[in-house]
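This is your field. Have a critical look at the following sequence-structure pair:

***
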Amino acid sequence: MKALTTLLVIGMFTTAVAMADDVDDVRAAVQKYFDSLNSGDVDAWVQLFAEGHTTFAGGGGLLEANTSLEEQRRIRQAGVDSGLARNLQARHIEVQIYGNLTAVATNYVVGNLTPAGGSPQQILRRRTAVLIKQGGQWKIVHRHISSLTLP
């Protein structure tokens, strides 16, 4: 009985540590998302997504179902090649872990987006990402981006 109690206590502490590490790993994935966007590192950006991820983009349109990571890479690379520049930062990143394989990350997005040959456009948005753990890596399966209106 004493051995069982000891194992139970050890299990509780190792689970808490794993969850704390997961929170840090999800925060790092959020930061990598913005770092790769800002630097134009399309390959690093694509690696953050699970195949078949979905998006509610900031323009308010319908749900976008992304069946091909290669197609996403081509689209993002075309933007980078055209001269589209981003300077975006994640602010107030909050992470919630559900079980061992699911996370929700929320944050505000501030900065600017500069179209090729255009003027910088100020960005102030809200972002939620749902991530799952695949092969030890946190991958985005859904993201929702919407405008933030200050009172």
Residues 29 and 128 are 13 Å apart (CA to CA). Helices lie at 2-39, 42-46, 69-82.
